């Protein structure tokens, strides 16, 4: 009996070994067949790959705008330990960070972007928390976007969470009260006559440059300026956008444009690779960016302008010159006009304070149809450059009285210009941090 079992076990081991050898032979045979096919039809496969890439690039450029997004913890925290506790380390780093003293008020007066126009359909409702406010943004059947306070004056339900649009009215999800274009309550179920004085606060708004904007003013004044839609955003194609969340004071973001010295310090390394930045002898071979800029006030008080000249240098030759003219419109709206050998482009930048020290920064790209591919690429390339700034903003402190040098004259001038957007009644940073909302 023992001999019989031993013989059967031997046969099983032998069969197992044969099965493994067969499996290995099959795998190698399949690999060999695939490689043989690839070599035999290499040109055909390469052509198919190229056609696929071209179709994908054309699709993303013309039919499906590029979207690139980075959350707060995605940029500027590579120095922290990795692993499952990374979020804890990020939170601890932010809590222990000193943001500086004498910070300006967190919410300057001006226009601020709330919602992407393409994301707000007719009948659509969006909840937005920004500028220390809880807001409801909705689009009526007439196509107009409106901004109102989020809370119903009846029992405090949030109109933007479960609320519906009827005509040009917003309906409360709790008791179905309806509020008209001017904020007045126009309908209450089972009530023949609506009592006077029941209303929600409406906010001045406009819809330009691919976004719905709200006018914020600490003194409650009507808009001190308005902005016309740019011809480029009306007539060119939308190629996509990138979005970042930045842990800094809002003033830091536009101030970057006036900080000419930082351009060559932070943005000289090639977008293709930073090897040339690490190994200087490769810098001229790989190429690097060279920048010059000048900041100046605009014709109106709320306007400013930055002229930027860009060169991409390879072996002392400028292979891709770009001229940029940036028009700053108030504290949080910038139009950047690009001129390069491949055609014109425009980037619309908006900066919105989500909380006192958290900014949502969006860049929207528009180009003519003939250079749509370049526009789609610009969404990503601009995001890579902007990431370098975000990494610094997410870890720096605000210095109210810098040790200026001669090259910082634009920063001093910018701060003087930007101070006009603060009022005596502006909410202080201390008060905003202690009670960011009215709860």
UniProtKB/TrEMBL annotation:
Residues of the Rieske domain: 112-214
Entry annotated with the keyword Calcium = no
According to UniProt, this protein's pathway is: Hormone biosynthesis; Steroid hormone biosynthesis; dafachronic acid biosynthesis
List required co-factors: Fe cation
EC top class, as a word: oxidoreductase
Tell me the keywords, alphabetical order.
Answer: 2Fe-2S, Iron, Iron-sulfur, Membrane, Metal-binding, Oxidoreductase, Transmembrane, Transmembrane helix
Q: Name one GO biological process term.
A: cholesterol metabolic process
List the catalysed reactions.
cholesterol + NADPH + O2 + H(+) = 7-dehydrocholesterol + NADP(+) + 2 H2O; cholesterol + NADH + O2 + H(+) = 7-dehydrocholesterol + NAD(+) + 2 H2O
- Give TM regions: 21-39, 45-62
Q: Which Gene3D superfamilies match?
A: Naphthalene 1,2-dioxygenase Alpha Subunit, Chain A, domain 1 (3.90.380.10), Rieske [2Fe-2S] iron-sulphur domain (2.102.10.10)
**Family the UniProt entry places it in:** Belongs to the cholesterol 7-desaturase family.
Instruction: Specify the protein name.
Output: cholesterol 7-desaturase
